[in-house]
Write a structure and sequence with these properties.
The protein is α/β, with parallel strands linked by helices. It is built from 13 helices and 13 strands. The longest helix is centred in the last third of the chain and has 38 residues.
Length: 448
Amino acid sequence: MSRPDYLTQGIPRESFPDAGMPARDAFQAIHLGLRVDGRPSMNLASFVTTSMEPEARLLIEEALHTNHIDHEEYPIADRVEQVCVRMLADLWNAPDGERAVGVATIGSSEAIMLGLLAHKFNWRKKREDAGLPADKPNVVYGAETHIVWDKFARYFDVEPRKVPMREDEYVLRVEDVAELIDENTIAVGAVLGTTFIGQNDPIEGLNDLLVRTKAERGWDIPMHVDGASGGFIAPFAHPDEVWDFRLEQVASINASGHKYGLVYPGVGWLLFRDRDFLPEDLIFSVNYLGGAQPTFTFNFSRGSAMVQAQLYQFVRLGRAGYRQVVDDMMANARYLNEALEKTGRFEVMNPGLAEPVVTFRLRDTSAFDEYHLVDRLRMEGWIVPAYSLPPNAQDVTVMRVVVRNDMTRDKADILLAHIDKACAYLDAAGVPPTEPARKTHDKQRRRC
């Protein structure tokens, strides 16, 4: 019996292959290699959705060939996107749903860049129309933001005015922002569900500051709310919290459909409260796919499947369904928070739970550090990140568990049991907290 070559020779890695192989062999060679990856259900570092219903997967499979930009060939796909935009405008309380505009993106990184780019263009036009210099734009945001904010500032030549994190406070402070804004500020960034801790910036307080600044100094500075994770949590877990288009200076919001929007990777959303915030200069029209088609994204050709999967989740779950999913996730996050606190070993960093993210650190009495602990958990199959916070809180090291909709109470109990087992082992081993442990942890991650 002949055996496939990939079992003993592998597949080409350094050069383009001269000949092909049977379809089944190609599948197995790649499939078996991917089995080495971690289990998605045990990856507690990621916000990204890892499971959807069979009906959703069928819709995705049927749409894998669909080029979302080709509105001439696939007009319904474009209509699906606009239906989702209108639903989100309603969810985020746009004052006039008919005037709100938005777009589907690859994720929140693209959405944030597009939103800030629009604010830069609007700021520049206002300055030029008033005969004022427009060569020194700045954007104000905090160290708790995603790295994409730094990327935007560098890629698009905008001065980043980044508020450092405090050692005892991990979100923006309104007074710090007040010291940094001026007539050249294109926007203030606020986060609904911070990457590092899972807390919310004081969005309502920042809005009050910007409203006062507009009245007293004439600087009409918009706010962009980064709701990558929180945009699909706050409306259901904290419906009375005012953070969205109900606030006068909130001009744009982004969210990740592939996080708590409950869709597989590949879709984010950007909405403007009013079409006046989207400059015409950023909308391009092409006609080489048929009729004239407007486009406002960095990417051109891309799949439509995840946009259609997003509409599936919206109509499948509705407000009641999303509320139930969010309630379940929040309940499991609270359970983990309380259980970790009860051990006496850990300090929970976000007891208020703005979103279902559990952030915690070892108390000073521990004989080992967070990097030792997460390495022991990795031996059980869990991927739990340990990381230091940004300046000026860089001496604080935390661990984070992202609770997704695949978390169950039994799974939480198994995780807690493995944490207890790892701590018992490290106690017995007498491992001292050292800087080399962190370096070893980072080196192992790079190898993976």
